[in-house]
Design brief:
By secondary structure, the protein is mostly helical. It has one domain. About 60% of the residues lie in helices and about 10% in strands. It is built from three helices and two strands, in the order ββααα. The protein has a two-stranded antiparallel ribbon. α1 packs antiparallel against α2 and α2 runs antiparallel to α3. The termini are far apart.
């Protein structure tokens, strides 16, 4: 794509980043955009796990980063968002994802895996 780098996402159209490296934040971006970009980049980096060959372990490790990212994105919505319906959705995401993160961390510990 001319003018910027595309970040491919499985099952989605590439995202145009206007020539920015992943993780880069433009000074003129709104604070909410910066927060969403940072959370998204952190989530995608965290999902780039070293695969073990154990489907269960690999699934849980990848999903931990995914859920943490969802929590961070929802927290940004609560900080910057205004719509009551979407804020309530974000609150629900935080609650359910935190519970699932706890279950996954416990599973990793029970199976002698590093929960990171």
């Amino acid at each position: 794509m001319a003018g910027g780098a595309a970040i491919p996402m499985q099952g989605a159209m590439p995202v145009q980043c206007k020539g920015m490296m992943p993780g880069a934040v433009a000074a003129e971006e709104p604070a909410s955009t910066k927060a969403f970009r940072i959370a998204s980049d952190r989530m995608h980096l965290g999902m780039a796990i070293d695969y073990s060959g154990n489907a269960d372990t690999d699934f849980v490790r990848g999903m931990l980063a995914h859920h943490r990212g969802a929590i961070e994105l929802a927290e940004a919505e609560l900080e910057y968002g205004k719509d009551p319906e979407i804020r309530k959705l974000a609150e629900g995401i935080i609650a359910t994802q935190q519970a699932e993160v706890a279950k996954m961390r416990k599973w990793l510990l029970d199976h002698r895996e590093d929960p990171k």
